[in-house]
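Q: Give me the 3D complex with magnesium ion.
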Amino acid sequence: MNTVPHFIVQISTDGTLLDFIGCRDSNVVLIPDIILGRPISDVMPSLALPIMDFAQQALPAGEIRKFESDFRYSINDCSYEVKLFVSGPDKILAIVHDITGKEADALQTGSHAYQDSLTNLPNRYLFQDRLKNAIAHAARKQRLIALLHIDLDNFKRVNETLGYDAGDRLLCSVADRCMTSLRKTDTVTRFITEDTESLMARIGGDEFTILLTEITKVQDAALVCKRIISLLSEPFIIERKEVFITASIGISVYPSDSDDMTSLIKHADIAMNQAKKQGKNTFQYYSESMNTSTLERFSIENKLRKALERNEFMLFYQPQIDISTGRVIGVEALIRWLQPDLVLVKPGQFIPVTEETGLIVPIGEWVLRTACAQNKTWQSEGIEPFNMTVNISGIQFQQDTFIEMVAQSLYDSGLDPSYLKLELTESCLTKHSENSIKKMNLLKGMGIQISIDDFGTGYSSLNYLKRFPVEILKIDRSFICDIATNPDDQAIVRAIIALAHNLNITVIAEGVETKKQLGLLRGYGCDGAQGYLICPPINPVSLTQFIKERMFATSSKM
Ligand code: C2E
Ligand code: MG
Ligand code: MG
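A: Here is the predicted complex, encoded as structure tokens.
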């Protein structure tokens, strides 16, 4: 390895060379006696400006503090790493390190500590090092930096369908194309004297990051993103096949989004996830509001993690009636979260978070166990048995242990499986369909009925009604709410009922709020109804009361 010229000088804040402390390289000809007391610009002309520039910022007039920082500086093909220490009220110690060719050497000697071996791009560590320097430099020069976090969309699919070798080749080609977008920075002003330059790194499997140090306005980053997205839109030829890939890109900007490295990286990542949520193949700037919603989410997530062990969940039950007789045929269990500050949170506000985090699995198990046990309790209290309907999230249903968990819950509660209905949504059926059919048949074999929730709002593939062992279908509230006035909704509801009946499926209407709606549904031959008209979701004690009153009312009518 080359010897690295390395010299240490002491300079006053007005630029006079006070002392020459040492030099480790004989090629650097500096004769201390002659140069002492002369301006540093005479002695090290190429480095004087950046050093003084930095040093003067480091030590405001009259202030004494110890300061340590470093920066890189390139001039004529040479690179220097400069470490500055403020050593007294008017003295700066500069340790100048000539690092010309050092990085190239490191790569040649096989040191891969800073290089990604697949794409030959810098890796995460080198990237962070450069980013730190770029921030320090931008701070001094009052410049902007943009950080792009690129994540390929559905890259896993490439690995799964074409194999890992093809996946690797695709990653290399993607890296090449993105680099092209950096080289042609025609619309972006370049500062050739910068000590840092735009840099692309691979920071993980299909994740890349780009540091743009050359931008003059925040919008410049979007130009680069657009160019990347457009370059990626052309097919890649891998193993003589055309492969298509898109990317989602998040942008964070120094100093508006943050002035520290860790937050800039984090913010670009948050923005990237936002781009994914917007449907992928797009870019998104980080924004404060985005952060707030993420923070809120984190706070909900943390609270949710503790909620189960602290027993903060409870189940409300909403009755379902047989439209023709008015009798209660069952109840739907609907989760509520009673937070320690006694705020009652509805599932719409936290179920999506539990699904994203996987917390839905233990929480869903708690729901099923509690609902089964409650129904058994009602039965043993002598109330005429009715069905218990439990909502099952797709993620829960996909668990390998799902069937086992259901069987165990039934066994532990002692509830007869014929009193349990599981409610799935349409999307849950259209994905993973072969495995879903198998599971549903197992459930059916156990004596449990499957109900399709929110029918009409998902994919509404009529085909699955035939293929899946579905016994109950619930028409979504959105079709019911205007049924009294909207002929289209009337037509849709009638058609759904007719279709379901032809397939031997029972139909329950959700969200029935008025007598008019109930009357129409009765006229259409709808089997069951659920909604505020009959009863809102209520706690178990109130439900016991409701059932007893209702049983009395319906039996006395007969
Ligand atoms: P869902 O299963 O479709 O439940 C019906 C929702 O409609 C309930 O909202 C219920 O309170 C509401 N509702 C019932 N009747 C009426 C009405 O007449 N008018 C109006 N405007 N609304 C009515 P809720 O309890 O807020 O639950 C929302 C959703 O959260 C549920 O929709 C279900 O998808 C999900 N959910 C609830 N509990 C659980 C659970 O234990 N596990 C899972 N995975 N999801 C659950
Ligand atoms: Mg439901
Ligand atoms: Mg529903």
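A quick observation: The first strand starts at residue 6 and ends at 12.
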